[in-house]
Each structure stands twice: as structure tokens, then as C-alpha cells.
């Protein structure tokens, strides 16, 4: 009856009976429990006290390095922006001057043409107003 | 918190055979099995207070022992896992020496030659007398997989163990 359940797997009672008989648990090595208890005790011991701290001056972190880098980057950005703005202003001024010169030229040419036309009319005896 | 020394000793003495035998039959190596069993109990010592009952402890020990033994087997390559096909082709027994080898030694040889998942299933089934659904729960595998492993393992053993069996049958 002890091996009744084994028949559910395969119709090979002999082999299964053999396995059940031969695969009995074997004894642990001698002193096994004592060795484990000793190891467990050793592991459970409190850790050695921490070594006394020696007061030492901690080296101050070099904060000035990143600050200097940040400042340099800021300055470089400022100078670049100033240079760019100055260049833009200069360009705008030049364009304005060019436009003024063109206007002056156009006005001059127009005045001259107008005066020439008036003279021709006057020479032809045509009376004109102002 | 670890369990108390007297309770821990009782647990070791109650379960050491089971844990050591599982480790031995999975790894196939005595020294490795001792290391594995030792680790299992030390882990029990650290986490023992979480175990609620004797059944729970037994289940926990079986599972941890199988997992640790499997890890040790893979890590140390105590014995490379055999493939079923290779196993069938190899001759694991020297006919001339068969008479001098005890049954126990031969069954251990047979087991060691089985592929790892099949070996674990057989050990749990016949050493621990566990049913397939209990093995499945322990290993976290489907019951069908466990049954397949058992069937396959028995098939392989049956093809390699006729001589051993005859001796056994004559002996009883």
C-alpha cells in the first residue's frame, strides 16, 4: 500500500519501488549541526567597534574652479552679444546714410532738371509762375 | 531577527538529512553538498523567524536546498548536465565491475547521469515522496511539466537500469 500512489505515473512498479527504497535520505556528515551552529554564532556576533575618528581638516572643495568657468562663459557671452549688437547698429547706420545720400542725389537731380526746364520755357517766352 | 540557538539546533537536527540528501543528489558531489546544506541552514538562521510552521519550514528548506544546489551545480560545473540523447548512447556501467558496485552506488550514478530537471523531479518524487503537484508548487513549474520530467526520467532509468533492477528483485 505504501507504493500505491506510484502506479499513477507509469506501469513500472519495480523501478519505482526500487527508487523509493534506494533514494532514502542519507545521513549528514558528522558534526554537521555543530559546525553550522558555530558559523551562525560567529555571523551573529556584533561587528568590531568602529575605529576612533581622527580629526582631520577636510580639504575644502575647489568651488572657485566651476565659478571661474561660469564667469568666463558669462563674460564671453556678454562680449559676443555686445559685438554683435554694435555690428548691427553700424550696419543700420551705414544703410541709413546710403539712403540719405541717394535721396539727396535724387532731389538734386530733380531740382536741376526742373531748373533747366524752367530756363527753356523762359527762353521760349512762356510765362510761368513760381 | 535570527532564531534562537536551541530552536535552530532542533531545526538542523530535524531536517539535516533531508537538506543534505537533496543537495547531494542534485549536485552529485559530497563536499559541494555539504557547503550547500550549510548555506541553506545559515540562511534559515537569518530568516527563520518568518517561517510560520513546521510544514512551512520544510517547504522552505526543500525549495532553498534545490535552488542552491542547482546554482552550485551550474557555478562549479560539478558534473556537466547530461543530455538525454547522450545519456542513452553512453555506457555508464562497466559490466566487469558491476558485481562489486553496491546498489546504492549504482542508483547514485544513474541519478547523476540524468539531466538536471529530470534528476530534481526524481529526487523530490522518490526521496521526499512528494506528489507531482507538490513538486510543481515547490519548483514553480506547471504540473504537466513535472509529470513530463518524471515520465521521461523513469523512461531513461528503465532503459539503463535493467541489470540493477534484476539484482534488486532477486534481493527482495
Give an overview in words.
The complex is a heterodimer of chains A (130) and B (172). Helices cover 64% and strands 0% of the residues of chain A. With 130 residues, chain A is mainly α. Chain A has a domain at 94-125. Chain A is elongated, with a radius of gyration of 55 Å. By secondary structure, chain B is mainly alpha-helical. Chain B has helices at residues 5-27, 30-47, 54-76, 84-89, 103-113, 116-127, 132-139, 143-160, 162-171. In chain B, α6 packs across α8 (143-160). Residues 78-101 of chain B have low confidence and may be disordered. The A-B interface holds A 5, 9-10, 12, 14-16, 18-29, 32-33, 35-37, 39-41, 43-44 and B 2, 5, 8-9, 12-13, 16-21, 24-25, 30, 34, 37-38, 41-42, 45-46, 103-104, 107, 111, 122-123, 125-127, 129, 131-132, 147, 150-151, 154-155, 157-158, 161, 164-165, 168-169.
Break the fold down into its secondary structure elements and pairings:
The complex is a heterodimer of chains A (130) and B (172).
Chain A: H1 13-22, H2 32-44, H3 64-123
Chain B: H1 5-27, H2 30-47, H3 54-76, H4 84-89, H5 103-113, H6 116-127, H7 132-139, H8 143-160, H9 162-171
Helix pairs in contact in B: 1-2, 1-3, 1-6, 2-3, 6-8, 7-8
What would the keywords be for this entry?
heterodimer, A: 130 residues, mainly alpha, 3 helices, elongated, B: 172 residues, Rna Polymerase Sigma Factor, Chain: A, Arc Repressor Mutant, subunit A, 9 helices, globular
Short note summarizing the structure:
The complex is a heterodimer of chains A (130) and B (172). Chain A is mostly helical and 130 residues long.
Helix content of chain A: 55-70%
Q: What would you call the structural class of chain A?
A: mainly alpha
The CATH class label of the largest domain in chain B is Mainly Alpha
Structural class of the helix and strand makeup of chain B? mainly alpha
What is the subunit organization of this protein?
A: heterodimer
* Strand residue content of chain B: under 5%
Amino acid at each position: 500500500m505504501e507504493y500505491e500512489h506510484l502506479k499513477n505515473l507509469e506501469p513500472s512498479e519495480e523501478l519505482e519501488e526500487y527508487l523509493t527504497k534506494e533514494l532514502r535520505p542519507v545521513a549528514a556528515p558528522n558534526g554537521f549541526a555543530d559546525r553550522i551552529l558555530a558559523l551562525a554564532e560567529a555571523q551573529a556576533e556584533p561587528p568590531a567597534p568602529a575605529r576612533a575618528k581622527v580629526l582631520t581638516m577636510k580639504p575644502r572643495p575647489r568651488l572657485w574652479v566651476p565659478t571661474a568657468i561660469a564667469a568666463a562663459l558669462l563674460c564671453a557671452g556678454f562680449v559676443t552679444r555686445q559685438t554683435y549688437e554694435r555690428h548691427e547698429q553700424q550696419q543700420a547706420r551705414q544703410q541709413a546714410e546710403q539712403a540719405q545720400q541717394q535721396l539727396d542725389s535724387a532731389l538734386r537731380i530733380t531740382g536741376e532738371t526742373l531748373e533747366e526746364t524752367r530756363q527753356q520755357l523762359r527762353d521760349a517766352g512762356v510765362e510761368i509762375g513760381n | 531577527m535570527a532564531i534562537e540557538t536551541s530552536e535552530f539546533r532542533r531545526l538542523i537536527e530535524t531536517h539535516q538529512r533531508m537538506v543534505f540528501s537533496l543537495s547531494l543528489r542534485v549536485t552529485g558531489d559530497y563536499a559541494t553538498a555539504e557547503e550547500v546544506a550549510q548555506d541553506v541552514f545559515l540562511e534559515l538562521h537569518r530568516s527563520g523567524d518568518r517561517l510560520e510552521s513546521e510544514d512551512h519550514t520544510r517547504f522552505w528548506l526543500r525549495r532553498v536546498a534545490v535552488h542552491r544546489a542547482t546554482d552550485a551545480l551550474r557555478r562549479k560545473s560539478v558534473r556537466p548536465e547530461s543530455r538525454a540523447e547522450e545519456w542513452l548512447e553512453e555506457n555508464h556501467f562497466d559490466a566487469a565491475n558491476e558485481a562489486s558496485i553496491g546498489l546504492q552506488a549504482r542508483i547514485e550514478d544513474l541519478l547523476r547521469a540524468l539531466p538536471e530537471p529530470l534528476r530534481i523531479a526524481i529526487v523530490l518524487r522518490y526521496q521526499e515522496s512528494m506528489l507531482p503537484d507538490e513538486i510543481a508548487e515547490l519548483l514553480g513549474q506547471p504540473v504537466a511539466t513535472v509529470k513530463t520530467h518524471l515520465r521521461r526520467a523513469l523512461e531513461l532509468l528503465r532503459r539503463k537500469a535493467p541489470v540493477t533492477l534484476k539484482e534488486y528483485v532477486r534481493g527482495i
